[in-house]
Amino acid sequence: MGRRAQIDNLHGWLFISPAIVIFTVFIFAPMGVAFFISLQKWNMLSPMRFVGLANYVKMIGSDHFWNSVRISMLYVLGTVPVSIGLAMIFAIMLNTIVHGIAFFRIMIYLPVVTSMAAAAIVFQYIFEPTFGLANYVLDVVGLERMMWLNDPNQALVAVVIVGIWKRVGYNTIILLAGLQSIPTYYYEAATIDGASRMQMIRKITIPLLSPVTFFVTVMQIIASLKVFTSIVIMTNGGPARGTDVLPYFLYKNAFEYHKMGYASAVAYFLFGAIFIFTLAQFRFGEKRVHYQ
Amino acid sequence: MMFGRSKRITPVIIAIEIFLLAVVVLINLPFFWMLSTSFKPKPEILSYPPRLFPSAPNFNGYTYVWKLIPLGRYFYNSTVVSISIALSKIVLASLAAYAFAKIRFKGSKQMFYLFLGTMMIPMEVIVIPNYITLNYIGWLDTYRALIVPFVVGAFSIFLLRQFFMQIPRDLDDAAEIDGCGRLRYLFTIIYPLSQSALLTVFLYAFLASWNSFLWPLIVTNSDKMRVIQIGLKALQDSWMIEWNELTAASTVATLPVLIMFFFVQKRFLEGIAITGLKG
What is the pLDDT of residues B100-112, one digit of tens each? Predict the structure, then answer.
């Protein structure tokens, strides 16, 4: 190896070394450590005791765990189709209009940059059953009032609404970028052939947009599996575990009950669930369109 | 024509624009509600039907919250932590990005993919070991705990690498012929050329840090170290707290970020569309 190549090697590794240290200490090593802890019984006070796969066995036999899996799945099913569907409609509309595109893009994105904790507090007030804005709206339209956060099933509906509100802007902006990357001559050709607007959307827009749609869907699923802040602020997982999503279940077991081993097993389960979708994106989402 | 460059204004388009206006009004209603409630006198926060605007706006919510919790301290903590993270991300991520974009070294490709892989590991999964590490080295409830794990990130490295790769090789060569060392080249030539990319990294990092919740919730427990998001949680848990006070604190926690976003939204939204990776 020449002297020049040696220097390049040295410089390259030196320049990335801070990142290597941080990633190793705070990301790669913890992945291993989390697995190690998941094989122990440990409350951080008494010494660790190796229990093999007992934590995983306990997890699979636990009704509370499966309740959390169910709640997380319902949360995903509630947020993903609606937020992607709405975002698709908004993006197509934004791509059509003439005035105020920049304004709409900003305004639709505000919830995304807002702190979830602050937003969740406001939504808690909005969903207040006696004088909240949500029930006022239901009153005005003549629908039956709801108990919202005080009812196990309706609480999930409320946090799902908040989840959609928080993410729809992000999905819209990504989908809009995807739309703008579709060459206009497809539409010009279709216009000459006498295609209608709906036909163009169905036959050109949606198929050509599918890689981007796939991408935002995966991102939305992953974000929904990680929902935490809104739950802590609005419901604490209740009432009656009705909003006890997996990350909250994990947090409670680790930092309130101090069952570090058990919580680590749950963490690995959650990681597996998220990892499946990440892999799907890598495997099937490769041919993502190039924006700009 | 609907999608072409020369859009003509038709009634349909006007209708769509009006519809979108209604949509963004609805989406931003919670912000209006937060502001309006924070200025309401106490009786009006529980009135039904709800009052759109306060009859006599006052600052009682704000002053009360300020007395009840050290909101100023929380705000200061959030600012210190977010700026530290954002600045160190610029420096450390640009070093790595420079290496990946401009230096040919053994294993660079593998390391780059390994770095990208960190984005696939959710915080939720590694909080327990990280908490244990910090507990072990005695960093819990310090600024270090809030800052150090985030001083560099794969997303920032990726973004800057993309940008640095666009800087022409001729410039690198010219600098080398002039005997300009790599660090000096990075800081004196590349930095000025990459202002927009560096600013984007700063903004993303600042925002993510300002809004982060799970990590500070776990690693801080004293008033002195609490950041503003966790302050909101503490406030919410406290006794006899009213909605005008809670929304006042929420406004304080949200406003800096919203104002910042308004100033730089163009760069921000472009960044999202280009990378399409993180929100």
Answer: 998 999 999 999 9
A58 min Cα distance to partner chain B (Å):
19
DSSP-derived letter for residue A114 is: S
Give A149 to chain B, closest Cα distance, Å: 15
Contacts by A8-13, CB closer than 8 A, 24 or more apart: A8/B103, A8/B104, A8/B105, A9/B105, A9/B106, A10/B105, A11/B99, A11/B103, A11/B105, A11/B182, A12/B99, A12/B103, A12/B104, A12/B105, A12/B106, A12/B108, A13/B99, A13/B105, A13/B107
**C-beta of residue A222 within 8 angstroms of C-beta of residue A274:** yes
Q: Residue B204: CA atoms inside 13 Å, Cβ hemisphere, count?
A: 30
Whether B112 contacts B93, CB under 8 Å: no
Taking the Cβ of residue B264 and every Cβ of chain A, the question of whether any pair is shorter than 8 Å is answered with no
For the record, the structure tokens of B95 come out as: 């070093």
Instruction: pLDDT band for A289, please (50, 70, 90 cuts).
Output: very low
Q: Which amino acid appears at position A130 of this protein?
A: T
Q: What value of ipTM does the predicted structure carry?
A: 0.89
Q: Is A41 helix (H, G, I), strand (E, B) or coil?
A: strand
Q: Which of B120, B161, B77 is nearest to A273 (CA)?
A: B120
Q: What whole-number distance in Å separates Cα of residue A227 and Cα of residue A77?
A: 13
* Alpha-carbon gap, residue B156 to B209, rounded angstroms: 13
User: Tens digit of pLDDT for each residue in B219-277?
Assistant: 999 989 999 999 999 998 887 888 999 999 999 999 888 888 888 887 777 777 666 54
Across the interface, do B229 and A118 touch by the CB < 8 Å criterion? yes
Q: Kindly state the tokens that stand for A179.
A: 């739309």
User: What span, in angstroms and rounded, lies between the C-alpha atoms of B229 and B255?
Assistant: 13
What is the Cα–Cα distance from A64 to A237, expressed in whole angstroms?
Answer: 12
Structure confidence at residue B50 as a pLDDT band (50, 70, 90): confident
